[in-house]
Amino acid sequence: MAMTPDAEATTTATAHLTRLTERLREHGLHARVRVAHRRPPELVAVNPDTPALSESIYAAAQEGTWWFWWSWHEKIAPVAEASAVAQRIRHVLTPTGRSR
Fold first, then answer.
1. SS3 for 36?
2. What torsion do the CA atoms of 3, 7, 11, 16 make, to the nearest 10 degrees?
3. From the CA atom positions of the chain, what is the Rg in Å?
4. How confident is the prediction for the chain on average, in pLDDT?
5. Distance separating alpha carbons of residues 1 and 93, to the nearest angstrom
6. How far is Cα 35 from Cα 24, in angstroms, rounded to an integer?
7. What is the structure's pLDDT at 5?
8. How far apart are CA 51 and CA 77, in angstroms?
9. N or C: which end of the chain has fewer CB within 10 A?
10. Is the pLDDT of residue 97 over 70?
11. Coil vs helix vs strand at 13
12. Is 41 exposed, middle or buried (0-12, 13-18, 19+ CB in 10 A)?
């Protein structure tokens, strides 16, 4: 049975987000992918040292290229750059004045 375009996009987005989850865990963040009915898959990243610092990340294609996106609909980087994206998310989820 062939997947619908929406089902195929959901499957692809989930796969990209799952790979990013692994990179985020390497950077010391808690991360998990949520897939809910009638909603795009999302990755929830949390700084375990400061749980109030969290962010939802999405994966979606634009003009034939898959990108990671911030929750405010701004591109982060192409999915091929998952390690760099993980570093950027870690930076955003690190309180000012601290570095890791």
1. coil
2. 130
3. 14
4. 92
5. 41
6. 18
7. 56
8. 24
9. N
10. no
11. helix
12. buried
